[in-house]
Amino acid sequence: MRVEFDRDTCIGMYQCVAEWDGFEKDLNDGKADLVDGEEREEDVFVVEVPDGEELDAKFAARVCPVDAIEVYDDDGEQVV
Predict the structure, then answer these.
(1) How far apart are CA 55 and CA 61, in angstroms?
(2) What is the pLDDT of residues 8-30, one digit of tens each?
(3) CA atoms of 57 and 1, how far apart (whole Å)
(4) pLDDT band at 34; cut points 50, 70, 90
(5) Pick from 35, 26, 25, 42: which is nearest to 3 by CA?
(6) What are phi and psi of 20, to 5 degrees?
(7) How far apart are CA 37 and CA 31, in angstroms?
(8) CA 22 to CA 16: how far, in whole Å?
(9) Residue 72 in contact with residue 4, Cβ under 8 Å?
(10) Of 47, 43, 1, the residue nearest 23 (C-alpha)
């Protein structure tokens, strides 16, 4: 499972930070950061979800008020 995060879309509500340790606050920019995320394209970061953290990653995506977070299963299908 992987998470894709569009940092440009992020408005810094930090609800994802409360749901999953895979996100952290960047108070300088007023946005969240995807921990250990690799930049796939400009301001779009991707990370593999560690085993046992799938549910937290899904919750982080669901609570994002601007849908900046997408979660994909191992087959590449979007689940959130």
Answers:
(1) 10
(2) 999 999 999 999 999 999 999 99
(3) 9
(4) very high
(5) 35
(6) -150, 135
(7) 14
(8) 8
(9) yes
(10) 47
